[in-house]
Specification:
alpha/beta; 40% helix; 9 helices
């Protein structure tokens, strides 16, 4: 793919930030802080869309299964978001970068006046050299998840800030022609030119702690591509792949805007 000009939105999910045990993966969060800080130091505008609040709270409280009750999930989000931002603040500070928290609801992007204010806040933070960290405001959302998932939210954010690229870190290397978890001969699709052709083979959420899956990533690709933004799905176990991406090397699955 082409080299990236300026502005990158990176989305990480619960499976990237936590172990299968539900506990926090400090190595991954540290790698994320280090690489994104390095990109920021190179002059890139970087926005992080981070899931994981509920998953982090589940790990902290020793819960094995995500509760069905919305009020309980909202409470877990409040607990986990506090801990997650505390970790981000500490780890990014170690690499001499400052982060800011932005929690969004659907009305923040659907109501024109609020959407303009939201965009202004993003742009001002980026002009100040600060890395915004975004999540849905799950503690006040009336629905379980107003945006559907943070894959779609990240695409909406990329559209709001007129990003050059959206990178979704997943639990696999990208989009395959069949399920790689059950088919060892599944082949990675490096580039998608017709999104409708790959929708039928997409799967649901990959982990107990996550909410997204390949279906939501394809929906995010539609939002991004329609806004003129290319999108990549990349394995979240290799955060350093961001260096290859900005150098224009082939990584993961690219949904290219035309």
């Amino acid at each position: 793919m082409d080299k990236i000009n300026k502005r990158i939105v990176v989305k990480v999910g619960t499976s990237t930030l936590t172990y299968d045990t539900g506990k926090i993966n400090f190595r991954q969060i540290n790698a994320l802080a280090r690489v994104l800080s390095d990109l920021r130091n190179q002059g890139y505008d970087v926005i992080l869309v981070s899931s994981g609040a509920i998953g982090v709270a589940m790990g902290k409280l020793g819960l094995e299964h995500k509760p069905a009750d919305t009020k309980v999930k909202q409470s877990l989000a409040a607990i986990g978001q506090c801990e997650l931002m505390s970790l981000y603040d500490k780890m990014f500070a170690e690499y001499h970068n400052t982060v800011a928290q932005i929690l969004l609801t659907r009305s923040d992007v659907d109501i024109e006046k609020r959407k303009n204010h939201t965009t202004d806040t993003f742009n001002t933070l980026l002009d100040m050299g600060i890395i915004p960290i975004v999540n849905e405001n799950d503690t006040v959302s009336v629905e379980e998840i107003e945006f559907g998932d943070n894959d779609s939210l990240s695409a909406i954010v990329a559209k709001l800030v007129n990003a050059d690229l959206l990178v979704l870190f997943s639990d696999i290397d990208g989009l395959y022609d069949s399920d790689p978890h059950s088919n060892p001969d599944a082949q990675l699709i490096s580039r998608v030119e017709d999104i409708s052709a790959v929708e039928a083979g997409a799967g649901g959420a990959g982990t107990e702690r996550g909410t997204g899956g390949m279906v939501t990533k394809i929906e995010a690709a539609k939002i991004a591509n329609d806004a003129g933004i290319s999108m990549l799905i990349v394995n979240g176990r290799r955060i350093e792949a961001l260096y290859d991406i900005i150098d224009g090397k082939k990584v993961g699955t690219l949904f290219k805007d035309y």
